Amino acid sequence: MAKDRSEPDLDRELSDLPPELRWREWMRRIEAVLFASASPVPRDDLARVVGKGASVDLLVEDLAADLEGRAFEIAQVAGGWMFRTRATYAPAIRAAADIGDQLLDLSEFDVAVLAAIAYHQPITRDALKDIFGKEISRDLIGRLHARDLIGTGPRSPRRGAPYTFVTTEHFLVAFGLQSLRDLPDREQLEDAGFVSEAPQVDFE
């Protein structure tokens, strides 16, 4: 959602409506904003369309309850909320809709490298090589970049100042995470061989 714009002439308080209708209208406004947005909408942005002091969290909860039984739901990801199709309908969507650009289409090794970046970021290609015991190709890094799952982090202070890699907001959205704190338990991923101890990049 755009941040730096003058707010439209919007009656936020709706004081002429009885409380029940006022609450319902605020819910519908939040629904409209989420429907129109292609990215997660933060709490502060949703607060712009409801009355002062109205609880955005409770309004979203009521809207989510309203959507029970529908094919889509409200997901809290990447510091905000957005609409998302329920996972049970994924096969139907793949069978009937053109969503080619939305598919991650990652190999098992791509996902393993992405997991290593998520847990060790910021991390260099050399550090990834130390984790996996082999060179991580620029093509693989390019695929993750192209899908906006990783971005460029701060330059390493080592000789040549190699680039480091970090995950993006789209990574959180794609995997349904509110923040990196919601990543699966690290020990479980280590047992599965997705992550291991990696050299730390010192930026101090």
Kindly describe this structure.
By secondary structure, this protein is mainly alpha-helical. The chain is 41% helix and 9% strand. It is built from nine helices and four strands. It has helices at residues 19-36, 43-46, 56-66, 90-96, 108-120, 125-132, 138-146, 169-174, 186-192; strands at 72-77, 80-85, 150-152, 165-167. The strands form two sheets. Strands 1-2 form a two-stranded antiparallel ribbon. A two-stranded antiparallel ribbon has the order 3-4. Helix 1 (19-36) packs across helix 3. The longest helix has 18 residues, at 19-36. The chain is elongated and about 65 Å long.
Total helical elements: 9
Shape: elongated
Provide the β-strand percentage band.
5-15%
Question: Helical amount among residues, as a percent range?
Answer: 40-55%
Q: Which sequence of strands runs across the widest sheet?
A: 1-2
Distance between the termini: 34 Å
Structure classification: mainly alpha
Mean pLDDT score: 81
Strands, count:
4
Give me the Rg, rounded. Answer: 21 Å
* Largest sheet properties: 2 strands, antiparallel
Give the low-confidence spans. 197-204
The secondary-structure element order is HHHEEHHHHEEHH
Topology:
Elements: H1 19-36, H2 43-46, H3 56-66, E1 72-77, E2 80-85, H4 90-96, H5 108-120, H6 125-132, H7 138-146, E3 150-152, E4 165-167, H8 169-174, H9 186-192
Antiparallel strand pairs: 1-2, 3-4
